[in-house]
Amino acid sequence: MTSGVLDPGLSDKLRQLGAFDAERCMSCGICTAICPMGISTLPRRVMRLAALGLEDEVRAQREAIFSCLLCRACEVSCPAGVHIADNVRLLRSWLLRGEL
Amino acid sequence: MSGHQEGSGGPGRRLGVYVCRCGGNISDYVDVGRVVDAIKDDADVVVAREAMFTCSDATQQEIVQDIAEQRLDGLVVASCSPMLHKFTFREVARRGGLNPYEYTQANIREQCSWTHTDDREGATRKAVRLVRAAMARTRLSEPLEPLEVETTGAALVVGGGVAGMRAAIGLADLGIGVFLVEREAELGGWVRSFGEMFPNGTSGRELVERMREEIASRPAIKVFTEAELVAKSGTYGNYEVTVHVAREAVRLQVGQILVATGFDTYQPEVGELGYGIRGVVTLAELRRLLDGTEGPIRHEGRPVRSIAYIYCVGARDGQHPYCSRYCCTAAVHSSLLVSDRDPEVRQYHLYRDLRTYGKNELMFGESRRRGSAYLKFADDEPPEVRAEGERLRVKVRDMLTGGAELSLMADLVVLVTGAVARENDELIATLKLPLSRDGFFNEIHPKLRPVETVVDGVSICGACQSPKTVAESVASGLAAVAQAAAVLKAGTAQLDPQVAVVQPSSCTGCGACVGSCPFEAISISAVDGARVATIDPSACKGCGGCVPTCPEDAIDLRGYTDVQVRAMIDGLLEGASA
Fold this sequence. Notes:
The complex is a heterodimer. Chain A is mostly helical.
């Protein structure tokens, strides 16, 4: 079971890297239904974990985050206009920081 | 379709009987043709037809023509409930030159086809009986003229919040004198204390100030503050009300009464969601904090860096099962006011269901765009709030993250409380106002008659009826104005003539009927030295409650006389052999 303390610090860090906007998500789930990769945590849950600042949980989704094709099928269907693919790229660069 | 049938021509009556198929609603389960055949040769029947939709313009026109050409003097339509089309066909009768009260509707849809879908034969026979009963009543019908009463061209508005103030201005602009009664020392109600309000950023204080100026500039409006309505008497369109102003009784003559007494907000119990802990406040308290200060937000001297809103407090629970409508939007709007003043404040919204309906949805989107986080908790698992050092820890199981156990730190926890009905026992007793299950005042129909109550001459508007936004309150105030003005501007009102009448020669003045009247319409008075009961036709509602109490059978209900009712029973039984 997921648990944790909400930490706004993560979105601050992501915003330093670029225009992170996952807070706009209203959790409708259209993106997850549309994702051709069929990974259960993509993309809604990843967006939500990042927006809430659950750092450990986001790190645990590393594989899912790197499986994304950046095809933007989710993004064109998002009713809240979240830039999902850009957010995934920001998450990747945040995860890789210090490793490269 | 059966054509014109020359009936046997009874003692002078010429009836037209129309049996409706209701496009299958009736004819699928009732053999409409057989109903027509069964009654077409009955006494007095001049025209007997079936129709696909009797209420259609074409059939209405046919009936109008039949009345004129066949010189009909009685009309029977066997169709749906008279609740639906009584007035439609009374009007058809009138257009054909027939008195509207020479018309009877037999309900063969709700009472036959819809109830006996498993028994076509039985439904058809029952329909024949009901039509015969309606014909029996119509044979004995008399032309009646509506009772016309003059109305007093002034209105009483109870409650001087935005709904009541707007109603008073609206009535005055239509040339109607208004007495505006407010319990507090000042007009304005809740809105008087508000700063910026959704959706347009109007200031509540300024709005009330503007309305007060408008009221002051209209001599037709007489305002009583620190005043309460304590008594009402009189009949339709002419009431005498007593208002206590500073312990002095003022009597006023009015034709209509508008009630706009507003609402209260739910007050949480100490301990409910942490209420009582320093930093846990209601939405109303947050609004006072925001409206009373400027710059970065501080609460009791401490800077506020993080706010958690908990929605639906005292709303949609066992005690208050209804949704209070405005609170979601008010909370989201308040969070935008907070971020306007200090965009760095972290804001968390813990909700059960969120309804920022209509255009207000844009505020929900804007608050997310500015970084507000929304977490959804289950009905049976409210968040927990406890003090942790100088701050507050809020634990919540978030259904949007797969039921994750999350916690957050906040400087302020805002309980988004719903609206509750205001305690107004004296007013309720004085006006006999009906209450809804939720304790608010009840309208006759939420869509079709949204401001009228079952009490004649008394309308309701604003949040005393149900939780409303400012815009909705003002709109309903204007709806009540339209309703009241329609009566008052006409100068007269037409009342249903189907009322109880006393035959003075049979009445012994025993008074048995007096106590049976729920509308206090009957009194005993001396006429030519004899004590007799008199019924005020403008107070009588035609319920018939007094009729069976009379030991001398001296009371009859117009339109439903004893003779007519007996004939209807005979008509029902006659059908039994069909």
